[in-house]
Design brief:
Elements lengths: L1 E5 L6 H7 L6 E4 L7 H20 L4 E4 L14 H18 L3 E5 L13 H11 L2 E4 L3 H8 L7 E3 L15 H8 L6 E6 L8 H8 L7 E7 L4 H12 L3 E5 L4 H10 L2 E3 L9 H8 L4 E4 L12 E4 L6 H11 L1 H17 L2 H17 L7
Parallel strand pairs: 1-2, 1-3, 3-4, 4-5, 5-6, 7-8, 7-10, 8-9, 10-11, 11-12
Helix pairs in contact: 3-4, 6-9, 10-12
């Protein structure tokens, strides 16, 4: 079985999935991008050539994870309109070349608008795909909300990140490295810092916490000047520690081992790899009940209704109030993450690949 994957993403998710299928699936990545002027100009000719060449080499299955490589750089005039046109042409090419498309719906629609009509693009993709993977049944409601076809949709949860990042550092060593005291209660925000992740709401709440033993650690890249200024205000007031920029794989464990809980107050989300990563490290999460976060057991964290204006603050205070309970929730988090084993999940994906090749995908499971 030959499988063409697009795009190749730095998130380990893809390799964790395909590694389990070695010997059954011959996988290749369609790797094109448009980060520079030269790549922008050559993007579509390269894309067409590669799609044709892989099809001639016998690749029939096309596993689509994200469409962000088609988002035209913002320095290009009419970038939103051009992005829209490029994506529509991409769909046409896949159909003309006879690819059978499997779409993993990491997000039903982009959290931040990218084209004049993101919803319509996802609706078209929903009809084009012979099979769709979702990580939570809650995604079905989001698909229906955005009028994306739920036919041929298969539930395969997001697997854990066990063994991905070097994990040789102790809690004491990690805290020393980050300048944290053993007695501190440490709340971690980890991952790319973008508006939909709710960091501004988190800092508004944590700035009001007067306990000097509660420390907020922020680790991740921010491309928003407004968010960067907001972070700086909390840092200068002594309310937070910020480690900006790219976090190397070798440093990931230090942040999680130093933390007592991981706070991810999303404003909206379909699936969250950063939440699964926190659970993999055995850290309870403080997060709203939305999207795939609805599936996490109550014992694995501190959850709140996203419609409750005091929900985040109440959840934070519940976590801070009982440090011993944090460890119990952490154990439950780790047990749940262990259940998300790729050796169990990947064969489910393979079964769908086989069904797509047979043309046997006319149900919802």
């Amino acid at each position: 079985m030959k499988l063409l994957v697009f795009p190749k993403d730095p998130n380990p998710y893809q390799e964790l999935l395909y590694r389990q299928l070695q010997g059954k699936v011959e996988r290749a990545y369609l790797d094109v991008s448009q980060q520079s002027l030269l790549r922008f100009v050559s993007f579509y000719p390269l894309l067409i050539c590669n799609l044709v060449l892989y099809r001639l080499r016998g690749y029939k299955l096309f596993h689509l994870h994200w469409i962000y490589p088609f988002y035209v750089p913002r320095w290009v005039p009419l970038h939103r309109q051009l992005s829209y046109v490029q994506i529509r042409l991409f769909y046409v090419l896949l159909a003309l070349l006879g690819y059978k498309v499997i779409w993993t719906i990491h997000n039903v629609v982009p959290q931040m608008p990218q084209t004049p009509n993101d919803e319509l693009l996802m609706q078209k993709l929903g009809k084009l795909a012979q099979a769709k993977f979702i990580h939570s049944r809650s995604a079905l409601a989001l698909m229906e909300q955005h009028h994306v076809s739920t036919q041929n949709t298969y539930l395969i949860p997001h697997g854990n990140y066990k063994g991905v990042y070097p994990d040789m550092i102790t809690r004491a060593e990690a805290r020393k490295k980050l300048g944290l005291k053993s007695s501190d209660t440490v709340l971690l925000f980890f991952g790319n810092i973008v508006p939909y992740k709710g960091l501004d709401a988190l800092l508004d709440v944590t700035d009001r916490i007067t306990d000097p033993h509660v420390r907020i650690v922020l680790a991740g890249r921010s491309n928003s000047e407004a968010l960067h200024q907001r972070i700086n205000r909390s840092v200068q007031a002594g309310r937070a520690q910020y480690y900006g920029g790219y976090i190397a794989d070798t440093d990931v464990a230090a942040y999680f081992r130093a933390a007592d809980a991981v706070c991810l107050p999303f404003a909206e989300i379909t699936t969250s790899g950063s939440t699964v990563l926190a659970l993999t490290f055995g850290k309870p999460v403080i997060t709203p009940r939305m999207g795939a976060l609805n599936d996490i057991p109550e014992a694995a964290g501190y959850f709140y209704d996203p419609a409750d204006p005091h929900g985040l603050e109440d959840a934070l205070h519940r976590a801070i109030a009982n440090p011993k309970q944090l460890a119990q929730h952490g154990s439950a988090a780790e047990r749940y993450a262990q259940s998300l084993d790729w050796s169990v999940l990947a064969p489910k994906a393979y079964e769908v690949y086989e069904r797509v090749l047979r043309g046997d995908t006319n149900d919802k499971s």
